[in-house]
Structures are given as C-alpha cells and as structure tokens.
Amino acid sequence: MSKYKLFLLRHGEGAWNKENRFCSWVDQKLSENGLKEAQECGALLKEQGYKFDLVFTSILSRSIQTAWLVMEAMGQEWVPVVKSWRLNERHYGALIGLNRAEMAREHGEEKVKLWRRSYDITPPPIDESHPYFLEIYNDRRYTTCDVPKENLPRAESLKEVLDRLLPYWNSTVVPEIRKGKTILISAHGNSCRALLKHLEGVSDQDIAKVTLPTGVPVLLELDENLRPTKPRQLLGDQEKIQAAIKKVEDQGKAKPST
Amino acid sequence: MAAYKLVLIRHGESCWNQENRFCGWFDADLSETGEREARRGGQALKDAGYEFDICYTSVLKRAIRTLWFVLDSIDQMWLPVQRTWRLNERHYGGLTGLNKAETAAKHGEAQVKIWRRSFDTPPPPMDEGHDFYQAISKDRRYSDLTEEQLPSCESLKDTIARALPFWNEEIVPQIKDGKRVLIAAHGNSLRGIVKHLEGMSEEAIMELNLPTGIPIVYELDKNLKPVGPMQFLGDEETVKKAMEAVAAQGKAKK
C-alpha cells in the first residue's frame, strides 16, 4: 500500500553539459535549455495536479534554479525549500572541468571507465594546483556546511556520495516524509542515483546501469517502511524520456553515436 | 559604529498594481516592470558587494520572486530562505480585487477616505461570498493557521501586530547572532518593521511609502536602533528620486 510520495528531479542542462565536461562542484547555472527543461517539468507536474509540501535542494545554483522554476510553474513558490551540501553532485576530484578527450588523454580510457562505472573507486583528489580549486573552496557557502570546510570531500566515489547523503536523508528528510509531506528533491545525476540505490536496494554492479534523464520527475511511491511499492515512474511523454535517457548515455561514450 | 546592517526590499509592480486593484493576500505575480525592478535591486546589491547569511520573505509570490531575482543577481542562491505569512501584505478584506473606482462606487468616497486615513479601522471582511474567498482563505499555504490567526481583513495596526512577533522571535535573534539579514516583503509588513525600528508614530508611518525594488539599508547599533536614516542603494538617479519621493510624502495633500 502506497503511503508516501517522493519526487526526485535531476536538473537540466548547464553550460558545461553542452561541452561534456564534469561540472561537479563548480557552480554553473542552467543553460537556456536547462531553464526550459525545468519549466516544462513544472508544467507537467502542475498538469498532473501534484502538490508539494517541502522541497530539498543541494547548495549548487543549478539545482536551486531548477526547483524555483518548477515551483513557479506550479504556483507553489510559497513551499519551504531546504538546502544542503549533502545533496550536491558527486565530487569528481581532479577530473572536474575535464572533457571526454582530455580525461582519456590524461588518465587512459580504462581508468576513466572504472571511475565512472565502479561503485566505490574514488577518482584522484582535487588539489590546490587544479584550475577550479579556489573557485570551489573559497566559496563562502562551504563555510556554512555542517562539517568544517577542511573535512569536505576532495573527490568521491558513488559510494562516498551515499555515505554523506544518507545521514541527511535519515535525520532530515525521512521525518518529513513520515509526517505525510509530499516531497520534491531537486538535485543532481549522482546524488539522485545514490538515493535511488538506497531506496530500491540496487546492487553495486547494477547501479552503474541506472541512467536518470535530466528534467524528468521521478516518482517513488513508498510504503510505511519507506520501501517502494512499485517500480520508479518517470513522468511525462515516454518517448521523450527514452530519448533523454539515450542522450545521457551517449555522453558517456567515447565516440558520439551518430 | 554600526553593529549590524539590515537590508529590506519592497517588491515592485504586480499585475494587479497595473490594474490599480487592491491586492492584499491575493497572490498576484510581478508584472514585467516588477521583474525589472527586482533585477535592478539585485544589481545594486551586487555592485555594492553585499553578502547575506539568511533571508526572509512572505508566502506571496511577488515577494518570493523578488527575493529570487535578487539572490540570482548577487550569486547567493544557496542562502537559507524562510517564508512566513506574517510578512504578507496587509489583508484588504472585502476590498480585495476592487479597483479604485469600484471601491468608491461601492462604499462611497467618504468611507474610502476613512479607511485610507485610519491606522486601526479595518476594511470590511472578506466573507464566504467573496470572489476570492476560496482562493485565499482556503489556500493550502494557510492550513496551519488557527482560526484566530487567519485574517478576513486587516487594518494597518493588525498587519503590524502579526508581523512584529516574527520580527522579534525569529529575525532579531539572528541579527544579534551576527547574521546578515535580507527581508523581501510588502509595503505594509515592511512598514511594521520600520515603524518599530524608528519608533515612529501611527500618523508618521501612515505617511511613509517605501520605494519599490530599491534595497533599503539600515545600520543598527547593538540594541538594534538605527544609527541614521534609512539609505537606498542604486545608481545616483534612482536613489535621488527615491529620497525625494519619500521626502515629499509627508508634505502631500490628501
């Protein structure tokens, strides 16, 4: 019996997605397409009559922007929004800012595949010599987190994403779900996947195959033990969704599939 | 030496402002002009290098979206935001939705004058028959309010009476804790804060119309008393116009 409804949303295109670079903790805003994706997502959710009680986002602008546009489309700007670094995108360490070709050149195709597909292998950490190090770690928002800045990650595997997400899920999100609130989590590809892995009990191997399309709301109906009562539902035009999934998967391939 | 800085911003033109209708708790959106005003306000804060730690706003979209435009401009979208009905615009009761002409036609010029000049006379209540009763009084966002809290109409006195507890219990402790606060709200809820900060009389606060879309800065001492008059942020011309408009208000004939 479905007791609770939870919505996950992966934000849409940012400026770097277009160039196929790992954005990660660099605070890019949404591109024009990304803005549109968020607006369309909001229109869909409005059309289907959903009503949120609470919204969670990361502290990266693109997930917040996405949430705002969704709420605007639904006329639910008044719904409380809670933000946390624990919903941030996976920290890609030294790989941040690199694109496909650069990554393969610097580290070799095999290594890159491993970092992307494995559950618990961490990429090399970002250090002071990295072009984006200061932009990230000098940002004031990282002095407001619930861990001291020096303890924030310098690189993460997907497992490490879940390790820092799960305490937040349990302490902050779950109690709200249990109050019967309909919740939207507006976050990123890997933070959403990590949460899905946990909720659906996906294995370490199988999670690599799970691809979330951007801008498509994922509805999870949960029982009173917060276990899914049915498979996750990707809401919207199913053809469009399949195309969007393929688009993300193609980005992961070394050569574009023409 | 100012211990604290506080920034207030009153939202700009809404779609209903354009039509000169009493808006109150009706959730009208910003007009394009209002959006421009918000962006301009945000730009002024960005140019002056303002950083905040926490933001407060009402549950009405015209204030919330104004805040969002500002946060986007100053690149601080990650700041915590608290929304509260207590910072809502004054509830105009039965007048909600009426434009100036309709109001005068319905209630007579004399009565309208009384309402406009009175600090504590509320307009007629919004009853179940009102066009906007369902949309406002039964809106989900007010479901946590008690019967006593949910207004059917408000005088300026009533508005201030429900805004100040939030100021005192939620905002003041944050300021005293050294948090830099930004409040994006409405003409009358902000009047409540200004009246309180400056110890203004009822007559004086009724004369004061805060400029829209322009960040209003207060420097406060450690007892939260303003060390000087409110300052406006913006380009020279915008600021000058705002100051002149405010100064002229006290002298305007009614």
In terms of topology, how is this protein built?
The complex is a heterodimer of chains A (258) and B (254).
Chain A: E1 4-10, H1 15-19, H2 32-47, E2 54-57, H3 61-74, E3 81-83, H4 100-107, H5 109-117, H6 133-137, H7 158-178, E4 183-187, H8 189-200, E5 218-222, E6 233-234, H9 238-251
Helix pairs in contact in A: 2-3, 4-5, 7-8
Chain B: E1 4-10, H1 15-18, H2 32-47, E2 54-57, H3 61-73, E3 81-83, H4 100-107, H5 109-117, H6 133-137, H7 156-176, E4 181-185, H8 187-198, H9 202-207, E5 216-220, E6 231-232, H10 236-249
Parallel strand pairs in B: 1-4, 2-3, 2-4
Antiparallel strand pairs in B: 1-5, 5-6
Helix pairs in contact in B: 2-3, 4-5, 7-8
Summarize the structure.
Chain A is built from nine helices and six strands, in the order βααβαβααααβαββα. Chain A has 258 residues and is an alpha/beta fold. The model of chain B has no long low-confidence stretch (mean pLDDT 94).
List keywords for this structure.
heterodimer; A: 258 residues; alpha/beta; 6 strands; 40% helix; globular; B: 254 residues; six-stranded mixed β-sheet; 10% strand
Mean pLDDT of chain B: 94
Helix-strand pattern of chain B: EHHEHEHHHHEHHEEH
Question: Helix count of chain B?
Answer: 10
By secondary-structure content and strand pairing, the structural class of chain B works out as alpha/beta
What is the H/E order of chain A? EHHEHEHHHHEHEEH
Instruction: Give the low-pLDDT segments of chain B.
Output: none
Shape of chain B: globular
Quantity of strands of chain A, as a count? 6
- Radius of gyration of chain B, in Å, reads 18 Å
Largest interface: A-B, 19 and 19 residues
3D architecture notes:
The complex is a heterodimer of chains A (258) and B (254). Chain A is of the alpha/beta class and 258 residues long. Chain A has nine helices and six strands, in the order βααβαβααααβαββα. Chain A has helices spanning 15-19, 32-47, 61-74, 100-107, 109-117, 133-137, 158-178, 189-200, 238-251, and strands spanning 4-10, 54-57, 81-83, 183-187, 218-222, 233-234. Chain A has a six-stranded mixed sheet with strand order 3-2-4-1-5-6. In chain A, α3 (61-74) links the parallel β2 and β3. In chain A, α2 packs parallel to α3 and α4 packs across α5. The mean pLDDT of chain A is 93. Chain B is α/β, with parallel strands linked by helices. Chain B contains ten helices and six strands. Chain B has helices at 15-18, 32-47, 61-73, 100-107, 109-117, 133-137, 156-176, 187-198, 202-207, 236-249, and strands at 4-10, 54-57, 81-83, 181-185, 216-220, 231-232. In chain B, β2, α3 and β3 (81-83) form a beta-alpha-beta unit. The model of chain B has no long low-confidence stretch (mean pLDDT 94). Classes of the chains: A alpha/beta (258), B alpha/beta (254). Chain A binds chain B through residues 51, 59-61, 64-65, 68, 72, 75, 77-83, 140-141, 144, and chain B through 27, 51, 53, 59-61, 64-65, 68, 72, 75, 77-78, 80-83, 140-141.
